[in-house]
What does this fold into?
Amino acid sequence: MFGLDSLDTLFVVWAFFFQIVLIMHFAVRKKYFESYAKKYGWLVYALCFPAVLISIILLLGGKTLSFWLGGFLFLVYAAYGYWIDYVKQIPWRNPLRRDIMFPYVTLYLVTVMFYWWPLGLLSRPLWFVFAVLFVIGSILNITSH
It folds into this structure.
């Protein structure tokens, strides 16, 4: 794939898988909130476990911080989101609670950025494709609340 080594390919495949899962999640969340999001939304957070495993593989494989940090950031974001949404069951989105929203959105964006930006180090076309997916995901995310 684009002349990448196996670890770079692992990163690329995981980054795109992650973004596509987010897009699918955001696309169905509003319409099927009760039947899907409340029951199965935690699965998006659970993706932090393979993300951390992939980050460990990338770290041990000698990849730079920009390639392996995303999985660990995802773990922090997922732990926070799971705690707020499923353990504490705080309805922070409506009405909006800024004290929860700001750390939640910051952790989410930092996680996604560490899957997007390193793509630019590997392939500008992959970076642009991910940018399009990020915009689609962002629009779906914002409109699904």
Observations:
- The chain has a mean pLDDT of 94.
- Residues 77 and 107 are 5 Å apart (CA to CA).
- The longest helix spans residues 6-29.
